[in-house]
Write a structure and sequence with these properties.
By secondary structure, the chain is mainly alpha-helical. The chain has 22 helices and no strands. The protein has one domain: Up-down Bundle (Growth Hormone, Chain: A), CATH 1.20.1250.20. Helix 1 crosses helix 9 and helix 1 packs antiparallel against helix 12. The radius of gyration is 21 Å and the shape is globular. InterPro entries: H+-coupled_symporters, MFS, MFS_dom, MFS_trans_sf.
């Protein structure tokens, strides 16, 4: 009887710990990506504040150019955060990254515009965005590794699915807040002071996320690894030496996430307003519908990945994007508001098939010893090249081609790359030791 009671108590303690881990990861990642995404939703207003001398298209390109440049530092940030995460611990790296992100976002709210300090205004904006990019480089990979290493082996997909769900929830709050502001405030009020309000929320939200994270122990896998052997002296060097093929596959698999996430969930309100002439509040509401569908379906897709296998899920998502992206964008231009929202909802659900699977898949690819480094470097390199540049490329492709569906071809190409990567991934999984394979 005592043994049964002790076993039940231990199980209850494990369940309580898992709930705290999920809550800490969700809230922390939510805060980071709310901070990071607000810039994308306010791009049209920010272009007026920081680039008033430019034409609307040039100002928007400049604003998205700063958005893209903030991603340049992310591979460097991935190496730095991966080093700390693999050597010192996942929790320590995550607790520090959220402070840096929140401080940088709060500073954006205080920046003077072009009318006050001229060219120094966009220079300062770029500098702060670079700090944001450095911080974000450690968040997604660290939170995914943290959840993956705490989760039961047969449910790693669904637990790691908390990361994209919390990321999209941060975007959802940003979208709702910007929607409310654009509905209540005039264009002049938004350009004068309204755009600053979402950035001011960063400080209190960041402190809450930090507090929750420091109350947890590091992951059981990381602690067990530390007892068995010393941590990697140079995790990134070891990753490049022993896991080169995994890095290449991880990079390719992340391309659809990079292009799809930033095109469909951050750039789309700007696309609907500037290219299709949709009223600003309506475009934000339509994207909010897509975000809700994405969040609702992420857990279903991540749970399915535990059952049918992650390479199969990612290959299916890539194939569907390759086939349906162009028809979906064609319909966006001719359908009404309800149809537009339904199309975005469908694209959001398709993206969740990829994104709900990706975090656990990237964790599968790398051993515990260098998991944070391998994940962070490959994920952030792909996002630096294709994610941060997605709004800029979409605007640029429309400009040079004269076609409003040009972003759809970019999405379709990213989906095709994901499909091509899966055979190589299959070979990698079968070459892993049994203890390193997906449970």
């Amino acid at each position: 009887m005592t043994g049964t009671s002790s076993s039940a108590s231990a199980e209850n303690q494990r369940s309580a710990t898992l709930r705290r881990v999920v809550a800490a990861s969700f809230i922390g990642n939510f805060v980071e990506w709310f901070d990071y995404a607000v810039y994308g939703y306010l791009a049209a207003t920010i272009s007026v504040v920081f680039f008033p001398q430019s034409s609307p298209t040039a100002g928007l390109l400049a604003t998205f150019g700063i958005f893209a440049l903030s991603f340049v530092i992310r591979p460097v940030g991935g190496i730095v955060w991966g080093h700390f995460g693999d050597r010192i611990g996942r929790r320590t790296a995550l607790s520090l990254s959220i402070l840096i992100m929140s401080a940088a976002t709060f500073v954006i709210a205080l920046l003077p515009g072009y009318e006050q300090i001229g060219l120094m205004a966009p220079v300062l904006l770029l500098a702060v965005r670079m700090v944001q990019g450095f911080s974000a480089a450690g968040e997604y990979a660290g939170a995914a590794a943290f959840l993956y290493e705490y989760a039961p082996r047969h449910r790693r997909g669904v637990y790691a699915g908390v990361v994209p769900a919390s990321t999209a929830t941060g975007l959802l709050l940003g979208s709702l807040l910007v929607t409310a502001l654009t509905a209540v405030l005039s264009t002049d009020q938004m350009a004068s002071w309204g755009w600053r309000l979402p950035f001011l929320l960063a400080a209190p939200l960041g402190l809450i996320g930090r507090y929750i994270r420091v109350k947890l122990e590091d992951t059981p896998e990381f602690r067990a690894l530390g007892q068995a052997e010393p941590p990697a002296h140079a995790p990134m060097t070891e990753t490049l030496r022993d896991n080169r093929r995994a890095i290449v596959v991880a990079f390719g698999a992340t391309c659809l996430n990079a292009v799809g996430f930033y095109t469909l969930l951050t750039y789309m309100p700007t696309y609907l307003s500037t290219e299709l002439g949709v009223e600003a509040t309506t475009s934000f509401l339509s994207t909010t519908v897509a975000l809700c569908g994405y969040i609702a379906s992420v857990f279903a897709m991540s749970r399915l990945s535990d059952r049918v296998g992650r390479p199969a899920m990612l290959a299916a998502a890539g194939a569907l994007f390759a086939v349906f992206s162009v028809p979906a964008f064609l319909l966006l231009g001719v359908t009404g508001v309800v149809g537009m929202a339904l199309i975005q909802l469908g694209l959001g659900v398709l993206l969740s098939m990829n994104d709900g699977t990706l975090p656990s898949y990237l964790c599968d690819l790398f051993p515990t010893r260098v998991r944070y480094s391998g994940f962070a470097f490959s994920f952030n390199t792909a996002n630096a090249l294709f994610g941060g540049t997605a709004p800029f490329m979409a605007t640029f492709l429309i400009h040079i081609s004269g076609s409003s569906i040009a972003p759809a071809w970019y999405l379709a190409a990213a989906g095709a790359v994901g499909v091509v990567c899966m055979p190589a991934a299959h070979r990698i999984f079968h070459s892993l030791l049994p203890q390193e394979r997906r449970g």
